[in-house]
């Protein structure tokens, strides 16, 4: 082998080495960029404690009292009332209290039974109670309806005790909660925090700072915006919920980005692997 051919081989190896080194440097830069972007995505997916905490500005050492008197619900048409009359007259008891017999002891165990055996308020605002007759309860509070029904019963039955309850207290929780749906409340009061807890709490993607409460009434529909992180929610008109209220938890703006992070990470990892394979082949 001549000196000329040896020199050509050495030059060829050097060029190949330089090309390989440049490729490796390029590959390293690509990897650094991709790795940095993946780290950025990971940090972007993190949720801060501030985004998850309720009532952030309530001072535990403060003696401040936050009080909002519950709004008294007024009966509307299509509401369902539980009416029971207890007296010494068993015949009248059986007639009014359709649920009192042993055969019907489980009538109030589900929503269908409530609809079939409860006393529904018709479009004119009346409930039709056997033996007592029609009673107008439209627009009354439960206390007022109890007084009116008790007065009507007293005319027909002596020394009777009357029980009146609203059994159609339902509300809805939608959006970014773990168990969205329609729920029933068997208490006279319900706060927005209780409603959200019944729906399994807000997810990490829910916006706690801008919750919408929709409140339909007989004449109109009202809407409220509340910030669950602010103590002012405790004195808000929407703190106590009413029957048929709808609570909507909207998603945070970055939800679509966060949801697609695994897909973007997989895509970038695939590109990085492909570049590595191509450089190795070349």
CATH topology-level name of the largest domain? Outer membrane lipoprotein wza fold like
Chain-averaged pLDDT? 77
| SSE-based structural type | alpha+beta
Biggest β-sheet: strands ordered side by side in the sheet:
7-6-10-8-9
Element order: H for helix, E for strand: HEHHEEEHEEEHEEEHH
Task: Give an account of the 3D structure.
The model has no long low-confidence stretch (mean pLDDT 77). The protein is 37% helix and 17% strand. It has 282 residues and is an alpha+beta fold. The two termini are 29 Å apart. A hairpin with a 5-residue loop joins strand 6 (170-175) and strand 7. It folds into three domains: 50-65 and 169-251, Outer membrane lipoprotein wza domain like (Outer membrane lipoprotein wza fold like, Roll), CATH 3.10.560.10; 80-166, wza like domain (wza like fold); 256-282. Helix 1 packs antiparallel against helix 7 (261-281).
Q: What brief labels describe this structure?
A:
17% strand; five-stranded mixed sheet; 3 domains; elongated; wza like fold; three-stranded antiparallel sheet; Outer membrane lipoprotein wza fold like; 282 residues; 7 helices; alpha+beta; single chain
Write the layout of secondary structure elements.
Blueprint: H1 3-44, E1 80-86, H2 90-96, H3 111-117, E2 119-120, E3 126-129, E4 133-136, H4 142-156, E5 161-166, E6 170-175, E7 181-184, H5 192-198, E8 211-216, E9 221-226, E10 246-249, H6 255-259, H7 261-281
Parallel strand pairs: 6-10
Antiparallel strand pairs: 1-2, 1-5, 3-4, 6-7, 8-9, 8-10
Helix pairs in contact: 1-7
């Amino acid at each position: 082998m001549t000196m000329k051919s040896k020199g050509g081989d050495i030059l060829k190896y050097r060029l190949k080495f330089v090309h390989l080194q440049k490729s490796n440097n390029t590959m390293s830069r690509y990897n650094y960029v991709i790795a940095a972007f993946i780290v950025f995505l990971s940090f972007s997916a993190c949720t801060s404690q501030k985004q998850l905490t309720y009532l952030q500005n309530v001072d535990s050492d403060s003696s401040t009292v936050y009080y909002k008197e519950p709004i008294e619900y007024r009966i509307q048409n299509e509401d369902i009332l539980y009416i029971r009359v207890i007296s010494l007259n068993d015949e009248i008891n059986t007639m009014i209290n359709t649920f009192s017999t042993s055969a019907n002891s489980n009538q109030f165990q589900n929503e269908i039974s409530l609809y079939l055996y409860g006393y529904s308020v018709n479009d004119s605002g009346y409930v039709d109670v056997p033996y007592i007759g029609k009673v107008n309860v439209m627009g009354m509070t439960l206390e007022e309806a109890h007084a009116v029904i008790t007065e009507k019963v007293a005319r027909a039955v002596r020394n009777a005790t009357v029980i009146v309850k609203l059994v159609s207290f339902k509300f809805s929780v939608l959006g970014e909660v773990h168990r969205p749906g329609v729920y029933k409340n068997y208490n006279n009061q319900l706060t927005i925090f209780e409603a959200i807890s019944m729906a399994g709490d807000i997810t990490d993607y829910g916006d706690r700072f801008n919750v919408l409460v929709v409140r339909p009434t007989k004449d109109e529909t009202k809407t409220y915006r509340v910030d669950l992180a602010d103590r002012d929610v405790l004195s808000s008109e929407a703190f106590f919920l009413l029957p048929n209220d709808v609570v909507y938890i909207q998603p945070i703006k970055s939800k679509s980005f966060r949801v697609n992070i695994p897909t973007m990470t997989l895509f970038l990892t695939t590109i990085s692997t492909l570049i590595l394979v191509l450089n190795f082949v070349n």
